[in-house]
Write a structure and sequence with these properties.
By secondary structure, the chain is an alpha/beta fold. 23% of the residues lie in helices and 28% in strands. It has a 7-stranded mixed beta sheet with strand order 14-13-12-9-10-11-20, sandwiched between helices. Strands 7-15-3-17 form a 4-stranded antiparallel beta sheet, with no helix packed on it. Helix 2 (141-154) runs antiparallel to helix 3 (180-188) and helix 4 packs parallel to helix 5 (233-242). The longest helix has 16 residues, at 282-297.
């Protein structure tokens, strides 16, 4: 099993995932379809890339030609390029100060349904907050609400935000919206529930985020291990990887005390290009959310049309920086995606992934 993919035997396999949504930049579901299968064709792969120095400072000012992308060791040509919302430390290259980042030219004319450069730029980010309201949360409920509220307030106005909560079922308190005040009302309306079906509810959240363009992320606040899901976490991670959705995991000491949950949270976030945080107190929770906010603001967004490749399964993505001056920097992004010629959709005959509800 490759790095970044979750290993577990605790859960029954889920019989199919909706891997019909490409990596943030448009998608095509092929026409042949029966009651349980659809054909898949990835037409554009989008990557969200963080570049940092040895101290963790974000590096700004990089250009498309500074990045080298390979898929299964096949060189790829960057089609679109965008730097994040905020500048970091200027990259240590001889001509960085003289040249600002520019969008890379599209190397081929996009077909119908494919995204163009103009469609991918200036989209801000789409952020889903998934809040643990299970019975693990009774003691720290209010503190967690405060941390989430501060996080929402800190996001740029052009960011769209959704607020979901979960216990045994998923509750979509606030659909994706640029109205951050509406999201805050959703945060304050939550109440504690029963058992925690994190992976069931996270899978449903990934499916909501999957068809969106541009930067998209799910920020999970969890206070304990999953004790009610039928979905294995590796399936959630694989769908997030294949759709270009970043997962950030923020948890407390209660979850950190469970070695299985700790390993799963760290691997799932790493596999999707995100991070995992384990907060000891309410101050740490707020710092973790602030770190996520900074990460989203400094991501480079790159996309490419995959070169011809006979591999119809898992494709490994590698992103490197060109030039000796840039080799000292660290690159973080997702490590691949699965291209399935025939992917099964969730159906009534498959295991129950947990209910979901939307307030009136």
């Amino acid at each position: 099993m490759r790095d970044g993919r979750i290993m577990t035997t605790k859960y029954l396999p889920l019989c199919g995932l909706l891997l019909v949504l490409l990596s943030g930049g448009g998608h095509t579901a092929a026409s042949q379809q029966d009651s349980s299968r659809i054909r898949v064709n990835v037409v554009l792969v989008q990557l969200n890339v963080a570049v940092t120095d040895h101290k963790g400072n974000y590096i700004s000012g990089l250009r498309p030609q500074d990045f080298e992308i390979t898929e299964d060791k096949i060189p790829e040509t960057i089609a679109t390029f965008e730097e994040g919302d905020e500048p970091g430390i200027a990259a240590d290259t001889p001509d960085t100060a003289a040249k600002a980042p520019e969008p890379a030219p599209v190397q081929q004319q996009p077909e119908a349904g494919k995204a163009t450069v103009s469609e991918l730029q200036h989209l801000g980010a789409n952020v889903y907050v998934l809040f643990d309201t299970s019975n693990y949360m009774y003691r720290g409920f209010v503190y967690a609400q405060d941390a989430i509220a501060d996080f929402v307030r800190s996001l740029e106005p052009e960011y769209k935000v959704a607020f979901y909560s979960y216990s045994r079922d998923l509750s979509k308190a606030t659909a994706l919206t640029p109205d951050h005040h509406q999201v805050l009302r959703g945060v304050r309306s939550t109440v504690a529930g029963d058992d925690a079906a994190l992976y069931n509810c996270l899978l449903l959240t990934v499916k909501d985020a999957a068809p969106l363009k541009g930067r998209k992320a799910i920020v999970v606040f969890s206070n304990g291990p999953d004790n009610a899901s039928s979905v294995p976490p590796e399936n959630v991670a694989e769908l997030a990887q294949s759709t270009g959705t970043i997962i950030y995991m923020i948890s407390t000491q209660a979850a950190e005390g469970d070695p299985v949950s700790t390993a799963v949270f760290e691997r799932m976030s790493k596999a999707t290009g995100g991070k995992a945080y384990f907060a000891k107190n309410w101050k740490d929770e707020k710092q973790a959310f602030a770190s996520v906010r900074d990460d989203l603001a400094h991501l480079y967004s790159l996309s490419y049309y995959p070169a011809p490749n006979q591999n119809r399964g898992w494709r490994t993505i590698t992103v490197k920086l060109n030039g000796k001056e840039l080799q000292k920097y660290h690159v973080r992004t997702r490590d691949g995606y699965r291209l399935s010629q025939q992917a099964q959709t969730l159906s009534a005959s498959e295991p129950d992934t947990g209910g979901e509800s939307t307030p009136n």
